[in-house]
Amino acid sequence: MTGFLEGLRSAVVWVMDVTSIPILAYFLLINTSLIVLIVLAYLEFRAQERRRQTAVEWQGAGLAPGVSLLVPAYNEEAGIVTAVKSFLTLRYPRHEVVVVDDGSTDETFARLEQAFDLVEVPRELPHEVPVRARVLGVYVPRDGRTRLLVVRKENSGRSEAINVAINAATEPLVAMIDGDSILEPDGLLHVTRPFADDPTRMVATGGAIRPVNGSRVIAGRIVRVEMPQTWLPRIQLVEYLRAFLLGRTGWSRLGSLILISGAFGLFRRDVVVEVGGLDPNSIGEDFELVMRIHKRLRDEGRDYRIEFVPEPVSWTEVPVTAKVLRNQRRRWHRGLWETLWAYRSMLFRPKYGRVGWVALPYYWLFELFAPLLEFFGIIIVPLALFLGVVNIPFAILFLVLAYGYAVLVTLAAMLVDEWAFHKHDRWQALGVTVAASVLENIGYRQATVWWRLEGWWSSLRGKKHVWGVMTRTGFDEGSA
Predict the structure, then answer these.
(1) 65-321 maps to which CATH number?
(2) pTM value?
C-alpha cells in the first residue's frame, strides 16, 4: 500500500508540474475573454441607447415588416393560453401567431380550442420545408378576426413542429419562440428594427432572454421584475446575464454571432426555407440553423448580417429542480459538440471571416473543452491535498483564476446590465445577485461541469438522446 501511495504521489506531482501553467493560463484567458465581451457589450449598449427611440419612429412610418410568431407546443397546458394571448396583443402593426401542437398528450389543444373558439378549416399547407410527420388538422378562430392559426400534427419533435409552422407562415419574417415564454409588449419592435435599418443584408436577429421565475405576471405581461424565490433559478439568472445577454451582445458587436437561442430568434423566412428549415436530427437545432445559414451565405459570397438585440425581449421559465437542469445542460453540451463537429471544416478558413477565425475557435476552446479542463482541476487539486503533495501557489492561483476571477466577471456583467436596463428597483435584488454569483461556484458549477461532460460522452458513445421533460409551473395571475 505504501508503494502504491508513493507511486501515486509521484504521478500527481509530475502531472501538476506539466499541467499547472497551461491550466492557469487557460482560466486566465477564458475569464479575460469574458471581460472583453462585456466591454464590447457595454460599447454596444451605449451605441444602441442613442438608437432606442427609433423603433417607435419607424413603426409610425409604416416600415415595420410583417412577422409570423412560430410557437411549437408539446404538453404546454399550464401556460399556452396566457402565452398566445400575450403574443396576439403585442404592440406591433402586422403579425400573426402560428401554434403547432406537436402531438401533445395533455390538454394543450383543448385549452386553445376553448379559449379561442377554434374551428377546423380545409387548408392545405405548402411543403417548402420538408416534414416527415403527418398534419392532423388546421384550425382558426371562428370569428375570423384574430390572426391565429393552430396546426395539430403527429409528435415528431420541436424542430419539425417549427418547420410545419414555417410552411404555414405568411409573413416575410418568422420568429421562433417557445410556448412557455413571455414577450415584452414592444419586443417585436426592438428585434425587427435591424431589418428596417438594413433590409437587404439582415437575415437573422436574436432577442435577449431573461428568467421569469419569481416575477409578477398578469395577463401574460411582466408587471414587476422580481428575483426567483429559490437559489437554483437565481444562479441561472446570473448565468443568463453573463453568457446569454452580455456574451452574445459582445459577439454581435464583433460581427461573429453564431448562436441564437431557440427560445427566441427572428429570421427571414425565405432564407430559412432556402437552407431547409431546422434539422430534426440535430440536438442543438438553433445553433445548427445559424451555422448552416453562415456557411451557405459565405459559400455563395453573399453579404449579410446576423445581429443580437440586447433589449429585454423574451422571458422564460428556467429549471427549478436539479433533475430538469441536468437534462437541459446535457442536451446543450451535446448539441454544442455535435454542431461544432459538423461544421469543423469552417475553422480557420479565410472565406468564413471572423466566424471561422474567431468565434468557432473560441467555442471549441472555451465552451466545449472548458468542462474537461475544469473537471481535471477539480480532481487534481483535492487529490494533491489528500496525498500531501499540493503545490500551494498553484492551488491558490487555481482558485483565484477559476473561481475568484469568475465572480468578478459576473459582477462586472451585473453592473453593465444594471446601468443599461435597471430592471431591479430594490437594492435587495442586487444583493441576491451578488450572493448568487458567489454561490454559483460552490457546488452548482461543479455539477454543471459533470452534466456537460455526460452530454459530451453520450454523444461520443453514439448513445441515442432522450429528451427530458421540462416541468412548467405556468404563469399565475400575480406571480410566475
Answers:
(1) 3.90.550.10
(2) 0.90
